[in-house]
Amino acid sequence: MNIRTGRHCVFMLHAHLIFITKYRGNVFNESSLQRLEAILKEVCRLFEVELVEFNGEHDHVHLLINYPPKVQLSKLINSLKGVSSRKLKQEFDSIREHWICKKSGSLWSPSYFAGSVGGAPLSVLKQYIEQQDGPL
User: Fold this and answer.
1) pLDDT given at position 83
2) pLDDT-based confidence at 9, cuts 50/70/90?
3) Could you tell me which of 62, 66, 61, 59 has the C-alpha nearest to residue 44?
4) Is the Cβ–Cβ distance between 81 and 112 less than 8 Å?
5) Which GO terms describe its biological process (predicted)?
6) Which three-class secondary structure state does DSSP give residue 101?
7) Which domains does the chain carry?
8) Residues whose CB falls within 8 Å of the CB of residue 74, separated by 6 or more in sequence, listed in order
9) How far apart are CA 96 and CA 85, in angstroms?
10) In this predicted model, what pLDDT tens digit does every residue of 63-121 receive, in sequence order?
């Protein structure tokens, strides 16, 4: 059990996040997914969030996070998607060129999935994310 403490609280909050690429574009490969994971970990660290598990496919990614109560998920998600989009397009020509052809500046769809994780043990959810068809 991963119970964390804050200045005035004790907490164990986990969320399962799913981001999909705009138009479900098949843009990720093994190296871009590895870099994406590193970028997301750094953004999480800045928010005092732990990226517990990460996996992805050509057109979407799964994240399992452990976050403090002071973090607004919508703001965290906005930063995760914005920073990762900007950095991946700077570092991977194939991703940048894909979106130039589509005449769209966004890597990610504006929608996302965020589910609270409370009923299932974390080991079950981690196993589910690990078993998704990634890395490529």
Assistant:
1) 97
2) confident
3) 66
4) yes
5) DNA transposition
6) helix
7) 4-130 (3.30.70.1290)
8) none
9) 9
10) 999 999 999 999 999 999 999 999 999 999 888 877 665 556 789 999 999 999 865 66
